[in-house]
């Protein structure tokens, strides 16, 4: 790896060094990942590795006896839960625990791309773009994002990831990614509703009707117990926000592929793309409703503009997978 491209940043430097790492086989993965780790170890920086089970074993075996045990931490990639809206605070927590003496943290994170629905994959790509904004003013750290190009993903997935990463790792080290788009983010359109209920309009005093509609849909599609209670809490928070900030809105509910989906629409505009993705502080006024929704649900999708208002979808998998 090119030392000039990965040298330890000055103490005054800020922000995330976000590197896409496309690889076609385990040999290429191991070469690139080990070069990244070895440079970090040589610089005295702590390293976090969260990759899939088979590649984690490759890394552990390759690093055995390398004298890096005190600097390298392996984290369970399963902790990176299905909902991408929860990932930024996970990274904040990990970095807070591992950062040492102001040294930049170097991290490798292989996201779970296989087995996701198109909606989940689209939100994960948006998460990758949001990372650059979320950590723009944070102490400098490095995140290498391996992506297996030999796993049969559509070519459009790699194209989208290139737009989310300012840097790309090649044979000669990291270099600027020409396709990176700083913003605004180009959202993929939401899928069409699947046989939704008739829209329920709600306003002040309408939260009971919202909960009844969600409960009825959940009963038809096998969502019950704690997961239903979580969805009801999230739906109540979202509806209350619509009433507070937009005077009310509408709700549609439907089931699709073992999932219960609640879609809220109102005339309000949500300007902050980080809303709901950063844990509220103890003295913060407002901002807890979307945070709770992200924590409760398996997926939260938000599309908002001053011209068309806000569409917010909550998704809960009925069997909890």
Set out the fold topology.
Layout: H1 3-6, E1 16-23, H2 26-43, E2 47-50, H3 53-63, E3 72-74, H4 87-98, E4 106-109, H5 118-134, E5 141-148, H6 155-162, E6 167-170, E7 173-176, E8 200-202, H7 207-220, H8 225-246, E9 249-256, E10 259-266, H9 288-296, E11 299-305, E12 309-317
Describe this structure in words.
- The chain is α/β, with parallel strands linked by helices.
- The protein has two domains: 3-176, P-loop containing nucleotide triphosphate hydrolases (Rossmann fold, 3-Layer(aba) Sandwich), CATH 3.40.50.300; 200-317, Histidine kinase-like ATPase, C-terminal domain (Heat Shock Protein 90, 2-Layer Sandwich).
- The chain is built from nine helices and twelve strands.
- The chain has helices at 3-6, 26-43, 53-63, 87-98, 118-134, 155-162, 207-220, 225-246, 288-296; strands at 16-23, 47-50, 72-74, 106-109, 141-148, 167-170, 173-176, 200-202, 249-256, 259-266, 299-305, 309-317.
- The strands form two sheets. Strands 3-2-4-5-1-6-7 form a seven-stranded mixed sheet, with helices on both faces. A five-stranded antiparallel sheet has the order 8-9-10-12-11, sandwiched between helices.
- A hairpin with a 2-residue loop joins β9 (249-256) and β10 (259-266).
- α2 (26-43) packs across α3 (53-63), α7 (207-220) packs antiparallel against α8 and α8 (225-246) packs antiparallel against α9 (288-296).
- The longest helix is centred in the last third of the chain and has 22 residues, at 225-246.
- 35% of the residues are buried.
